[in-house]
Amino acid sequence: MTTVPPGRRERKKAATRQKIADTALRLFLERGYDAVGIRDVAAEADVAVTTLFSHFASKEALVFEQDEDFEQRLAQAVTGRAPHEPLIPVLRREIHALVRHCTADSAAPIWRMIDESPGLRKYEESMRLRHAETLATAIAADPELSQTATASRTIARFVIDAYSLAREAAEPEAAVDEIFGMIEAAWEATCPRNHLDEGFG
Predict the structure, then answer these.
(1) Nearest 5°: phi and psi at 58?
(2) What is the pLDDT of residues 19-30, one digit of tens each?
(3) What pLDDT digit, counting tens, does each position of 96-130 carry?
(4) Contact of 157 with 125, CB cutoff 8 Å
(5) pTM (2 d.p.)
(6) Residues 54-75, buried b or exposed e (16+ Cβ, 10 A)?
(7) DSSP labels, the chain
């Protein structure tokens, strides 16, 4: 499948969005999240408030500007994998990449800001739940995986929680592998073919 390069309008829109996000993050880190308003960000980025809201639904969303990208990547890890490619290793690679991104030295001040803000913590929690639901929907819709809605949602929650737990661990990369060892075992226990094999044991 050929990917069509974005047109001039899409590139300009993406550049404006990135400029707003970068400006907001700089102001939040310089002055404190609560001390900066939407109008402050819009003025500093030299855009109208309506333009800012056309890109970001809320002030909290400015902090998590890659939210939608991560959500789509997780779903595409399911839908875009090769035929008969095992699911869990694919998701493990995505979570490893996400954890590496979010545990880089440059991300530390951002996470301190999030941890110190009840509003941002609440937003991040709702974001994780949404990511889990999107991932669960992709898993349940794949006929090759043959999982119930409950099993799909359970595994998806485990995967999303793996990211949060690993990010807070002393050795994030090792934590991802440890957690995914448990996720793999849970996944194998839910696979219909395994239950079928047991019946003939």
Answers:
(1) -155, 170
(2) 999 999 999 999
(3) 998 998 888 888 899 999 999 999 999 999 999 99
(4) no
(5) 0.83
(6) ebbeebbbbbbbebeebbeebb
(7) -PPPPP-HHHHHHHHHHHHHHHHHHHHHHHH-GGG--HHHHHHHHT--HHHHHHH-SSHHHHHTTTHHHHHHHHHHHHHTSPTT--HHHHHHHHHHHHHHHHTSGGGHHHHHHHHT-HHHHHHHHHHHHHHHHHHHHHHHH-TTT---HHHHHHHHHHHHHHHHHHHTSSSHHHHHHHHHHHHHHHHHHH-HHHHHHHHT-
Amino acid in the structure at residue 22: D
Task: Please name the amino acid found at residue 129.
Answer: L
Asked whether 148 and 74 are in contact (CB, 8 A), the reply is no
Cβ atoms of 54 and 89 within 8 Å: the answer is no
The torsion defined by the Cα of 10, 23, 66 and 119, in degrees rounded to 10, comes to -140
